[in-house]
Amino acid sequence: MKKKAIIFILAIATFYSCSRRTILYDKDCAHGHICCEVQCSCCPEIGLRKNYPQVFIISEIENYVLAVDELKNQNRLEKISCPNMSACGGGLDGYYSNKKLVLIDATYQAELGFSSRAFYIKNDSVFRIIYHEHFAEWEKYEQNYPSEKYEFDASKMTYTDTLYTITLTNPKLFTKQSNDKMISNVIDEKSEKLIEQLLKCGEEMKQELNTVINDN
Asked: For the whole model, what pTM was predicted?
């Protein structure tokens, strides 16, 4: 009884000293101690669950993504950049915590527009992908300003702005938004193909980052 009371007090103390969103409780952690999902002041290392499943629940994913983003913004993750453009992702950066890859961030910059891909990773498994397309609407521009009549004016170009969020729970979650409006949350043949392409790209970028690390 006394031992349980001590464990409970430690859990409460850790709860208030760490960010609420990063806590993993004693019963879920390796070695029977209280640790955090990514990092915080009271536990500097990533907490690994015993037999951590490769299919994640949504609450864990949301907490983990927030924690990784916070560490990235605080420059507390090790950043490794690929000196060459990634074949599928463009400019490629990998972010590591304790030598483990937790985030891939890649942007393909075109003359007008860009596409970006963020992959959140734990235990070498991708569980959240955020894919952003911001592309010039050339067809619409040509209709409004035919090239035989007008000189090109980049200030008159309009752009698509589409954000895809893919969460690899079971079943998978998919949202497609444009200008903060929901377009679709249905996984059909087209969206499945997109998910497959993104996952393939993610694996390729992992290998490209590993090559950079091994060459240094």
From this structure: 0.72
- CA dist 93 and 80 (Å) reads 6
Predicted local distance difference test score (pLDDT) of residue 117: 98
| 66 is a domain residue | no
**Secondary structure (3-state) at 164:** strand
Looking at residues 128-141, what average pLDDT do you find?
94
For residue 34, give its domain range. 2-52
How many domains, in total, are found in the chain? 2
Instruction: Give the torsion sign (CA, 82, 83, 87, 88).
Output: positive
Shared domain for 43 and 83, answered yes or no, is: no
95/197 same-domain check:
yes
First CA to last CA across the chain, in angstroms? 53
Helices (H), 18-81: 58-73
Q: 131 and 86, same structural domain?
A: yes
Rounded CA separation 210/35 (Å): 28
Let me know whether 195 and 133 are in one domain.
yes
Q: Are residues 81 and 15 in the same domain?
A: no
Tell me: the pLDDT tens digits for 13-33?
A: 433 334 333 333 333 333 333
CA angle 134, 140, 141 (to 5 degrees): 90
- CA separation for the pair 11, 43 (Å, rounded): 13
Q: What is the mean pLDDT of residues 53-69?
A: 80
Q: Is 147 helix (H, G, I), strand (E, B) or coil?
A: coil
Q: For residues 141 and 67, what is the distance between their CA atoms, to the nearest angstrom?
A: 41
